[in-house]
Here is the input.
Amino acid sequence: MEKRAAQGKLGRRQFAGGAMATAGVSLLATPSLALPDKSAALCESIGPLALPEGAAYTPGIAVDRRARKPIFLPGPGAGYAAHAVSEVLFWTDIMMEHAMFISLLMPGDHLRGPRSEARRFQDLFARHFLSARDSGYADYGISPLLSSTRSSVQRFIEYKRRMQRAQESGSLRSLVWPLFFDHIAREAERFVVRLDRLAYGDTALQSDEVSAFWTRIMADHLEFIAHLLDPQERALVDQAVERAGQLYEAHAFRVDSGQLATLADEVIDFKTAAEQGIETGQIKSIIDPALADHVLREAVRFSDEVRRAQ
Here is the structure.
């Protein structure tokens, strides 16, 4: 994989909304979500929202640029507001993309209803993200942001679990694996827990919790990658499955922080090489570059949390 990655990559640091064309009109075009004309109404908007680029206004937030989209993280010596806002920025961006992936995997008129629900959640979390990024927060004024975000995340969890049950029962015939619904619901449920802790002023991360959460998430990612690679990519499929096994083992037996940091770095390297190969066409797959970037950003967050955990 590393040999393929040496071919180079395109637009690594471009903001995803500007780098990828969307069909139809961005849901952020107008507050009313109205389409401008009848011809546009015939073309349903599916894909990433074209969000404006910008820096976080809250002091103390750092930007990691190892992915196509910026990854907002608490910087060295960050205060309470920076910790809280960076958490909201990271996870509302992730939630926005969860909704996008769901909508992309629900084709056809028979899935228009649940697909439209997903698109509304995509728009909702885009607005939360922009509000958090483009406003300057102080320690004493963070509660409304945390509360409103939590309410939206809780609604999204209910949608994800409802879709999971429907897919498992056969009443929903989408292209979304039940495990994917479960995976993204677990991420949202953990975000709610983090929001609740932040609401009480607690920014700390516990190493056992970080390990238990992220090792399973990263293992899921690698299994998703294995199943989305072209069957001819046998060596990469085997690598992804093997690395998933290592992470499941780490999940079961709780490795120390040093080993966990090494695992995180190895996952970042694997996903970076995979994203490069996918973008340049050196790796055959049905993986959208936006999904490759999504899982890479989560790996960077995993690494950051391992190093900050107590």
About this structure: Residues 24 and 45 are 4 Å apart (CA to CA). Residues 143-169 form the longest helix (27 residues). Confidence is low (pLDDT under 50) at residues 1-41. The longest strand covers residues 61-64.
